[in-house]
């Protein structure tokens, strides 16, 4: 646990526009600001940022966007290249802050990415703080509903600790990056994460097949599971609740196995609480009936493989690019997947750029990668053309 001096350090909950203006004015004085967010993703279908935590060397701030009419005054700090914003796992926070408030970001330091470049295996904030600073933080509220109000003093004290130690952690990791001459590589990775956007994963029509126990169901059971899965998603979306908080995965599979046809048979499913029987019973019975009429026949190997949209030549080039990247990373002693992600390699494989300018135009390409590896990447692309 943090020592008593840390727990007694000053902090402030910001819930009024006047307070926010004063905080922004104070934060303008600092060249380093630690940033974190808390969202309600475990409780809402459409998640939103519920807290924004900020820390300087001498003060912690908790901004409550649910209480404030407008948090856009923070935008000038996030976009200011003269102030470095220190995150842990910045991609998620930046993506959600951009999604909810339209913020832009310049000059970011990501302690998780720094740890990746240094080859650290355990990259959770709690493990980094313990191993690097000797600090243990309490994670009991990791799955808290941050959309709940009011927030207790204990919960707020927990929230502030996610940024309270980020600045000294940055100093620790930055010193090692410099010692190992990885600072420029890290800066390039940070520049890429500044552009992060939040993308909700597209609906996967076969997602129900991955539920634990689905592979043990017969064709009618799989048809029922598909209908129940879609029903749950519809209810969750309409009520803005996380799907597993509407009906659990286990319950969907159990209903698909037993397939009750009447209210009395539904009552015998002990895993289904009485309130769920009252609230969803009729819809569940209808979904079960629909599913039995539309059984799902799996291939002989018991697996359904979705077409990922890439042709054979693209996949072959992607595999060559990935092999090259991994070999290069091993030779240089740095995890190049931080800078050359599989997503970027797939784009290169799809577009097959003919020259450096075309390679520069590939979404996600950086000047650093272009100058350091551009010719090697183009040689791989040209080689794939010759194999056609």
Note the overall shape.
Answer: globular
How many alpha or pi helices? 17
Query: Total domains, how many?
Result: 3
Largest sheet: 6 strands, mixed
State the CATH architecture of the largest domain: 2-Layer Sandwich
Radius of gyration: 25 Å
**Helical coverage, percent range:** 40-55%
**SSE succession:** HEHEEEHEHEHHHHHHHHHHHHH
Q: Pairing-aware structural class of the strands and helices?
A: alpha/beta
Tell me the name of the CATH class of the largest domain.
Alpha Beta
The average pLDDT is 90
Question: Hey, roughly how much beta strand do the residues contain?
Answer: 5-15%
Low-confidence stretches: 1-5, 303-309
Q: Please provide the count of β strands.
A: 6
CATH topology of the largest domain: Nucleotidyltransferase, domain 5
Q: Tell me the strand order in the biggest sheet.
A: 1-4-3-2-5-6
How far apart are the first and last residues' alpha carbons, in Å? 61 Å
Which properties best describe this structure?
388 residues; DNA polymerase, domain 1; alpha/beta; Nucleotidyltransferase, domain 5; 17 helices
In short:
The protein has 388 residues and is an alpha/beta fold. The chain is built from 17 helices and six strands.
Descriptive notes:
There is one protein chain. The protein is α/β, with parallel strands linked by helices. The chain folds into 3 domains: 4-193, Nucleotidyltransferase, domain 5 (2-Layer Sandwich); 219-293, HRDC domain (DNA polymerase, domain 1); 312-386, DNA polymerase, domain 1 (Orthogonal Bundle), CATH 1.10.150. Helix content is 51%, strand content 8%. The protein has 17 helices and 6 strands. A 6-stranded mixed sheet has the order 1-4-3-2-5-6, with helices on both faces. A hairpin with a 2-residue loop joins strand 3 and strand 4 (59-63). Helix 5 (111-117) runs parallel beside helix 8 (166-179) and helix 14 packs across helix 15. The chain is globular. Residues 1-5 and 303-309 have low confidence and may be disordered.
């Amino acid at each position: 646990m943090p020592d008593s001096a840390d727990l007694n350090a000053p902090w402030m909950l910001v819930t009024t526009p006047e307070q926010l203006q004063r905080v922004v004015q104070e934060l303008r004085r600092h060249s380093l600001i630690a940033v974190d967010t808390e969202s309600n993703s475990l409780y809402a279908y459409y998640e939103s940022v519920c807290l924004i935590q900020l820390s300087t060397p001498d003060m912690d701030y908790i901004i409550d966007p649910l209480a404030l009419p407008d948090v856009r005054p923070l935008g000038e700090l996030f976009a200011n290249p003269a102030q470095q914003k220190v995150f842990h796992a910045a991609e998620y926070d930046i993506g959600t802050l951009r999604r909810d408030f339209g913020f832009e970001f310049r000059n970011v330091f990501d302690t998780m990415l720094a740890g990746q470049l240094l080859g650290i295996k355990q990259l959770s904030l709690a493990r980094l703080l313990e191993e690097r600073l000797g600090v243990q933080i309490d994670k009991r509220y990791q799955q808290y509903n941050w959309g709940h109000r009011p927030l207790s003093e204990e919960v707020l004290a927990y929230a502030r600790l996610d940024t309270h130690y980020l600045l000294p952690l940055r100093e620790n990791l930055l010193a090692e990056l410099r010692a190992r001459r990885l600072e420029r590589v890290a800066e390039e990775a940070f520049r890429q994460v500044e552009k992060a956007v939040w993308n909700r994963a597209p609906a996967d029509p076969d997602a129900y097949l991955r539920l634990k126990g689905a592979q043990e169901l017969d064709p009618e059971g799989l048809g029922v599971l598909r209908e129940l899965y879609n029903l749950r998603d519809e209810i969750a979306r309409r009520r803005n609740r996380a799907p597993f908080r509407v009906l659990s995965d286990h319950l969907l599979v159990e209903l698909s196995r037993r397939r009750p046809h009447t209210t009395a048979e539904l009552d015998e499913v002990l895993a289904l609480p009485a309130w769920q029987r009252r609230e969803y019973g009729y819809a569940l019975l209808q979904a079960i009936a629909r599913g039995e009429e539309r059984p799902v026949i799996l291939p002989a190997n018991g697996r359904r493989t979705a077409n990922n949209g890439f042709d054979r030549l693209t996949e072959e080039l992607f595999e060559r690019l990935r092999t090259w990247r991994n070999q290069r990373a091993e030779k240089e002693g740095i995890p190049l997947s931080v800078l050359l992600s599989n997503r970027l390699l797939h784009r290169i494989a799809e577009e097959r750029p003919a020259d450096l300018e075309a390679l520069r135009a590939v979404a996600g390409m950086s000047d650093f990668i272009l100058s350091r590896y551009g010719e090697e990447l183009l040689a791989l692309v040209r080689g794939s053309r010759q194999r056609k």
